[in-house]
Structure formats: C-alpha cells, structure tokens
Known about the structure:
The complex is a heterodimer. A four-stranded mixed β-sheet of chain A has the order 3-4-5-6. In chain A, strands 1-2 form a two-stranded antiparallel ribbon. In chain A, a hairpin with a 4-residue loop joins strand 1 and strand 2. Chain A contains four helices and six strands. Chain A is elongated and about 100 Å long. Chain A has helices spanning about 5-35, 80-95, 140-145, 150-165, and strands at about 55-60, 65-75, 110-115, 130-135, 170-175, 195. The longest helix of chain B has 26 residues, at about 200-225. In chain B, helix 2 (about 50-65) crosses helix 5 (about 200-225) and helix 4 crosses helix 5 (about 200-225). Chain B has helices spanning about 5-20, 50-65, 85-95, 140-155, 200-225, and strands at about 30, 40-45, 45-50, 70-75, 100-105, 115-120, 160-165, 180-185. The interface of A and B includes residues 150, 204 and 209 of A.
Amino acid sequence: MIPRYQRILFWTLAAAILLMTAFLLHGCQQAHKRLTAHNDDTPIAAPVTTSTEDITLYLANDADASIAPVQQQLALPQDPTVRARVLLDHLLTAYALPGSAHPLPSGPAVDDVFLVPITASTQTHSTDNSQLAVVNLRASFADNHPSGVQVETLTLLSIVGTLHAAFPRIAQVRFLVDGQPRETLAGHADLTRTYPVTDTTFKPTPPTTDN
Amino acid sequence: MLPTRRHIAALLILLATATFAQQPRTLILLDPAHGGPDAGAHLPNNLLEKDITLALATRLKATLTAAGFPVVTTRDTDPAAAIPPDQRAGAANHARPAACLLLHATAAGTPGIHLITSALPAATEPPRTIPWDTAQSAALPQSLLLANELGLSLQNAKLPVTLTRASLRPLDNLTCPAVVIEVAPLANPESTPTPVSDPAYQQRLAEAIAAALTTWRTHLAGAAQ
Lengths: 211, 225
C-alpha cells in the first residue's frame, strides 16, 4: 500500500512535468515564429560610394495578377551588361522579402545578362541600334520558382517591363537557365520563345457582356 | 392514304438530318495538363497537378457529355511517359474541335479561376499557311470571346475569375479557339482556403463551364445562320 503523501507527491511532480513541457513547447513555438517573421535572406547592402539614380521596377502582384511600375532609388554600375544584371537581381530580390506581393525564393537569381545587337543575321526584325537581351537565370531560381501559368508569366513580364524601362535600346529578350535553353520556367511559361520588350503594365479586366 | 411506318421513319430521319446540319460543330477537346513523369506543380497535402487536372477532366467530361457535347481528351489515364506539348497540339488540331480547354492547377497566384488566352498578336488576315509556333493567332479573336463567355459563367456561379494572357505550349500551337483554365484555391475570409481537390469546388466549376459552352454553342449556331 502506497502512503497517501507519496501519491500526492507523485501526482504533483507529474503535473509539474506536464506544465514545464507545455511551457517549453510554447516557448519554442514563440521563438520559431519570431525567427521566421524576420527571415530575410537578403544580403546586407554594401556601402555605396556612387550616387543613386531613379529606376522603375515593374512589380507583379499575385492578389490581382497585375503589374505596376514603381519608382525606386538604386546605385547601378555603368557597364550595361553588369547594370542589367544588378537591376534584375534587385528586382527579384525584392520578391524574396517577407510580405512580398509576388513571393519568390530567396537567393541569387540572375547569372548574367548579355546584350547582343540585333542584325539581319540574328533576327528578321532588324532595327537601328536595337539589342537582344539574353537573361541567363540560375537553375536554383527556376527550380524553386512557384509553379503555375499565371505566377510564372507575372515573373517574366516583370523582368521584361523592368528592362524596357531601364534600357530603351533593348527590343527583345530571351531566357536561358544555367546557360542552356529550357522549355519552361517552372513547368508552364514558355522560355523557348523571344519576348518583345514592351511596357508590361497590366491590370486584368473583368469579363463583359458587350459581346 | 395513311402514312405507313416507313414514311414516318423517313420523315424523322429527314428532320434529324436537317437539325444536325443546322448545328455547328461542337466537339470539345479537354487537355488535362502534365502526366506521367511530368507531375506539374506540387500542391499542398502531397497532391500533384497531373492528378488534379485528370480528376477535373473526368468530371468535366461527364458534365459536358450530359449537356450534349461530344468530348475528346488528350489523356484519360496517367501515362507511363510524358506527353510532349507538340503531340497534344497535334492531336487537338487533328480532331478539329469547336473549343479546346487546357486544364491546369496551381497553389500560387490569384485565388479562384485563371482564364488564360494566348499572348500572341491576333492575325490580321487568314494566313495561307499556318506557322506551328503561332498557330493560335488566327483563332485568337474566337479564343478571347470564349474566355469572356467562360468568365461570365464563372461569375454567375460566384467563382472569382481572372482573365489574363500568357505564352505557353501547346496553347500557342492550337488552331481551335483555346483557353487555359487554371484552378487555384478559393479564398475563404473566415476559414482555410478551399483546395483545388475539393469535389464540390470542381463540380461548381464543371457546371459553370458547361453553361458557358452551351451559350457559346448558341452563339455559334447564330453565327452559322
């Protein structure tokens, strides 16, 4: 026969263990929430000695499938190819920030951007001084991009619109992934075609009864 | 002289033939995207896009058949090998359907249904030869009308709808009026979003599409007359 005081002691200790377990679990959850809330993988910006300039980013919004131009200040290098790569990296990094309206994976996205003059030998649409931009995306970016027709198209149109605003001479864009042609970005949007560079500002219109 | 059974039967056949001749061609092609090793998007709860599109195509085929549409699909099962986009487009163009519906599913983007037409520019005049990469150009005005009709029907069914345009294959290679129907989870302000695998959600969608195609068929009949 177990004495009464020992039974009381046992149940008191058991209750204390349960309480401590619950307290620890709650603490772990709170810490996890606190850490993930500030999960910003963006590298800290290096000190800038050059002056900043106005740039226009064409930002996509998943909530209404729109693309809208947004003015920002950014220091960009002078070399056109490096300038284009830094600009697109800045654009795609913005999508990886917490609270982004078009969430994309964090990490480096653009390997290189090549600017090629469009001549009669490269394209039929030959215009004076116009260029073809070849955007070489990283496979890690494409592989982790959300999969869907709409979401992939928004990313491509955001890139095209941003290049259009910053580089008036670019008339067309092609995409590579790790230096190789690839069928789709993440299973849907066509990467085999050449995209005309235009103002990609877009807001979907509802269906109409006029027809 | 009273009509015999043969006379009545001949009259009925004549009537049926005349009615059929007035009906425009309303074969519907369904293309459940992905399949085989090409699983498509990985959706929450370990669901694969290829399975969702196949389930939706099966449900839609039954609903459309009940509404009197002949239906063909690019796949009825999960194939062992992936079906290339060119093969899907080839099969669709060979069938010469009145409308092509390409079914997709996603967990990203705007909540509800995304109706997507080709981003190609519309052809200004009927081409003598149809380039494979831009085959959809000639049918684009009809595709936009079809997308609008589907959008109106989905709105009537209280399903949120977004009309956009995109470049993707096999959409750009189709010669029929074609629309991509991409299903995304339904937002619920007071509870968790309705997943794309929800049977009630899929049934509402199938019925709204059938209603839209019935109206589309009526428009085609009016245009034919």
